[in-house]
Amino acid sequence: MKKVFALIAAFIPAIAMAAGGHVHLDEHRTDLHDTASLQRGAKIFANYCMGCHSMEHARYNRVAKDLGIPQEMMMDNLVFADKKFGDLMTIAMEKEDAKRWFGNPPPDLTLVARVRRPDWLYTYLRSFYEDPMRPWGVNNVVFKDVGMPNVLGHLQGTQKMGTAEVKVGIDPLTGQDITEVEDNVLYLAEEGELSAEEFDKLVYDLVNYMVYMAEPIALERQTLGWWVLLFLAIFFVPVYMLNKEYWKDVK
User: In this structure, is residue 248 part of a structural domain?
Assistant: First the structure.
């Protein structure tokens, strides 16, 4: 019985972490069939994330094959270190140095989409806001007191937490928006290099790629599943006939 309670206790933090607390999470409609989105996500991750975060359980050649990226293009545009095509996607930063600089080494992100749901990642990456009290000058609605800088901040712009007008509906007579002033609202105080729609699309592609990285075989597994179901459906016919023949003389 003690072992059962210990096992339950071990899973509680993971469940709480995956749930994302009581914060509303925006939906991420993952589409692993959208190869163009996955390619853009790979580019974004290589340019903005791999300075600190590795994906050491994946290899460059596997990613290139799955996403339809030629080897030369992959090596010229998505591999910035002295790496070979078949190498693991590690980074140059040593964990000892990272711990000294940041307090803790930035985590490997190969499986982050399985630990944190896609909705959580999609909302988290869009929920940084200005907070002068934090070491990096930012905080996060989803991950309070986050230790990560907002590396996409110049693209999104500066968000602040405060009082702002919020759309709550549409007037059925005039068709105009109905707004209310609310406190503790996340709002865009200064525009970035991208519009809100463009930035959301960028983050969508990034999360789409991270979902793929967490389980590269997902599409292959789904395809194989249909073949297995087809085999079982066909195999059912001779099994049924054999069963019927076997029991016909049994009274």
Answer: no
Domain-embedded: residue 10: yes
Q: Show Cβ contacts of residue 30 under 8 Å, excluding neighbours closer than 6 positions.
A: 118, 207, 208, 211
- Total number of domains constituting the chain: 1
| Full residue range of the structural domain in which residue 42 is found | 2-49+109-239
| Tens digit of each residue's pLDDT, the chain (251 residues) | 444 444 444 444 444 444 445 788 999 999 999 999 999 999 999 999 998 999 999 999 999 999 999 999 999 999 987 889 999 999 988 888 888 887 788 999 999 999 999 999 999 999 999 999 998 999 999 999 988 999 999 999 999 988 766 676 786 777 777 766 667 788 899 999 999 999 999 999 999 999 999 999 877 777 788 888 888 888 888 888 888 888 877 76
Task: Count the Cβ atoms, other than its own, within 10 Å of residue 169.
Answer: 9
Evaluate whether residue 100 is within a structural domain: no
Q: Which two tokens stand for residue 78?
A: 């998505």
Question: Angle of helix 196-214 relative to helix 60-67, nearest 10 degrees?
Answer: 120
Using alpha carbons, select from 213, 236, 225, 239 the residue that is nearest to residue 57.
213
Q: Which of 203, 189, 185, 166 is nearest to 48 (CA)?
A: 203
Please report whether residue 57 resides in a domain: no
Predicted TM-score (pTM) of the model is: 0.77
